[in-house]
Amino acid sequence: MARPSFKLDDEIDRRVESRLSYGDSKSEWLRHAVKLRLQVDPVLDRLYEPSQHEERMEFVERAVIDAVNRELERAPKKGHEERMERMPSEVREPENGEE
Questions:
Q1: C-alpha closest to that of 48 among 37, 38, 59, 39
Q2: What pLDDT tens digit does each residue of the chain (99 aa) get?
Q3: Domain range list for the chain
Q4: What sign results for the dihedral spanned by CA atoms 28, 5, 12, 98?
Q5: Considering all CA atoms of the chain, what is the largest pairwise distance in Å, rounded to the nearest integer?
Q6: What is the dihedral of CA 53, 39, 59, 18, to 10 degrees?
Q7: How many angstroms separate the CA atoms of 63 and 40, rounded?
Q8: Angle at 43 between CA 41 and CA 49, to 5 degrees
Q9: Alpha helices for the chain (secondary structure H)
């Protein structure tokens, strides 16, 4: 197994740390992030150049927010009202009032 070594900006490290729960492994979290990117990048290649990092991140964030919002709208119909109550408001509502 490869053992890469790399540096993270302090802000990124803090954000990763804030996402960890008791017993979570930062290494496992980062491995999952890499696998997720490897899965999504080939799809994004159809729309963006590999060097368009910001555009890719914005597109993915918007797509995920939209998909989560659609699921939340259907949640009460599926008997999952508690999911809507637990969901952070930033997921339910677009940032800066954007649609």
A1: 59
A2: 889 898 999 999 999 999 999 999 999 999 999 999 999 999 999 999 999 999 999 999 999 999 998 888 887 666 666 666 666 665 555 545 544
A3: 40-93
A4: negative
A5: 47
A6: -80
A7: 12
A8: 65
A9: 10-19, 26-44, 53-74, 81-86, 89-92
Angstrom distance (rounded) from CA 55 to CA 45:
12
* Residues 77 and 84: beta-carbon distance below 8 Å: no
Whole-model pTM: value is 0.68
* Token digits of residue 20: 């960890």
Residue identified by tokens 């993270």 is: 8
